[in-house]
TrEMBL record:
InterPro entries according to UniProt: CB (IPR044068), DNA_brk_join_enz (IPR011010), DUF3701 (IPR022169), Integrase-like_cat_sf (IPR013762), Integrase_catalytic (IPR002104), Integrase_recombinase_N (IPR010998), Tyrosine_recombinase_XerCD (IPR050090)
Organism the protein comes from: Piscinibacter gummiphilus
Domain Core-binding (CB): 275-395
Chain segments annotated as coiled-coil in the UniProt record: 126-153
Region (Disordered): 535-556
Taxonomic lineage from the root: Bacteria, Pseudomonadati, Pseudomonadota, Betaproteobacteria, Burkholderiales
Gene3D superfamilies, alphabetized: 1.10.150.130, Intergrase catalytic core
Family label: Belongs to the 'phage' integrase family.
Every Tyr recombinase domain range: 425-644
Keyword terms of this UniProt record: Coiled coil, DNA integration, DNA recombination, DNA-binding, Plasmid
The protein, known as: Tyrosine-type recombinase/integrase
Amino acid sequence: MTRELVPAGSRELTRDHIRFYRAVMDGVEMAKAWATYLAVDGDYQDTLAKATLGWVRQALIQEALDAGQPALVGLFRREPWRVKTSTTTKPTLAEFSERFADAGDWSEVELQAMWKEEYGETNPSEARAAARRERLNQRLRQALQLLERATRRSPAREDAVERWLAPNLAKNLAAAGLASLGAVADALTARTNIRWKEVPGVGDVWARRLQEWFDEHGLKPHPPALPLAPPPPPANASRLVPLERFELPFVGVAPLPSPTGSAPFSQAGNALGVQNDRQAIESWLKAKASNANTLRSYRKNAERLLLWCYLERRRTFSQLTVDDATHYRSWLENLGRLDEATWIKAGWRLPASEWIGKRAAKRDTPEWRPFDGPLSPDSVNQDLLTIRSLFKYLKEFRYLQDNIWDALGKTLATRIKLADATEQFVGRSFTDEEWRHVVSPLSPDGPELERRLLLVLWLGFGCGLRAREMLSLKLGSIRPGREKWRLKVLGKGNKTRLVPLTSPTRLALLGYLDSVKVNFDKVIEATRAREGHPTFEEPLLRSRRGRRGGSSPEARDALQYTQLYDSLKSHLKARAAELAASNPEAAAKFRDASTHWLRHTCATLALKNGVPLPGVQKLLGHTTLNTTSTYVTEDDEALGVDMERFTSRFS
């Protein structure tokens, strides 16, 4: 079958097209790259793939011209599968550097010297040609990354099929009367046979790929008209779906009139510009969820409430009462703890088993459920805390008139604070024995990289620092004293705190400073200097770039996050390998561990060893949704004594 190729400009160039092009350029087998990025265009054919590469190249040239970057045109005129062609079997410098776990610590000059040691000198013309190819390849990759990150239009229901889909596929769809993406989305949902007999030339495989592409780009069919009564759900189907798939109003669920008999609070004047409860939650998540972990936690708690409101209580957020709030707390506490007969007898509409599913079920699968088992009392309190924060936000921006969760009283607030404070530290952490296994092979008198890693471990375990906080430390951050040393740490929200430097951490610090030729006098000078002074601003943790073979006596470049992360992960994997035969469970734990485990371990073991909770909170600089004044009244001297006694057990 002859495949048509549209001219550049008449079909949208997508990120998947650029990724396909770049994969081929990087030496990925063309068939594999096609299957990964362009399966929606049909089965792989060599001629079709090469023709598509030609079209992508033309489109990239056009984008470069439109963006006012004519210098990129010459780069894109090269055939991508010829980019890596070389007249020598010797690896490029980039390929050579991939063999070293700590390559990020070496400069390009140092890597070149190492390359020459292994492969010898090359003749000048060959070296110049290889260097040109390397520079050209690097420029081409940078250009592709630039265009890939560029803002691109998303597919819309009203768009013509030929604007986004492969020409042959678009022709078949248009011949069947499906001229727009919206029409295709509706027809895919309404098809009566898996083979999609209604569209000749497009079978079940292509239909499945199309459906995946539509789901990826958020193109949904028009929802059907709401029936007067809910239709029976399909076998094994659940009415419980994640927040992003929950449509309001939900089929068969009509919220009851306001329980008070009066009209519900008008949301027309809300400052959020949202129309329903799901949009209100999404607005709150965008405003308050500052990272991926917070987003997952907040979204989980909010979508549980949303599903409960519409499926159990059959009320919108604005119709909820204080009585509903107390019922929801009771519902959370009892879910999964009562037998089904008792549960139904209590008056709940949905069986408890319908709310609970597998722990690892993905959000886009039918197996997903809002819960994976009963909640602990602390988890119930955490849920309620998050919901109260949500309603506070919605009240502040006039989406809601009241925050009903405030009525649960001070007892709830106190329980929530304690649960929130302790639950932060119980997560993933090492035991006493495991921590000793982590740190025991390293010495403050070892090589520089070993000393640096030892300091990183103690900054996390002995001071409770986040990775970013470690990397922000400067010589001026050290506060030495006659007996007690401290660190001035810049934490989240640009808030600073002083943390005690206990004996083991101080020993690791001094050993590392000695390895990078920083003596104590310079530390004192940095401490006395003001911020902005060159000595004050010198980084504490440093990269080895530019110092191979002792060519430079003192390191000045700051350590980067990837270097810190890679060195720690490499160390933990090595420790895991030692445990693989004797303790596979612990080995798996070590392989999963990351820099943040050090912080968790600091908290959990400190609490177990008698360091007061307010002191640990202050040490970590942790801000909860309900921060209390006790977190800032802990005596600095007492905290230092407690941490000295605790960490000395491991030195």
